[in-house]
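Changelog note: in this version the structure field was regenerated for every chain. One regenerated record is shown below for reference.
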Amino acid sequence: MSFLKTLEECSNSFSLQHLKQITPTSSEKQKEREESKKKKRQAEFASAVVSHVKTFRDFHGALSSRWKKINRGIANAYANRLKRKQAKEEREERDRLALLRVSFYLFSFFTVY
């Protein structure tokens, strides 16, 4: 009987050890829950950072393109002003030369050699 009891205890002891290996204790479950919460918070933080990066880039990209449009408009206005000024100067020069030609022909027509 003592041998049987010892054998029973050994078998029960082995089953308990085996059972302990299979089923996690409450502290292990708690650690797993904390780990999963930590991973979830980290994932939320990472997604928040990615979202912020996207909105940041969109905002500053729009701002940059707005300034590019403004600067392009200023450059075009300046170039157009120069073109108009140059065209006006060329027109005045053509008119002056035309008047000189007319006055030369009139002068040569009325002068007698």
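Spot check on this record: The CA atoms of residues 11 and 17 lie 10 Å apart. The mean pLDDT is 85.
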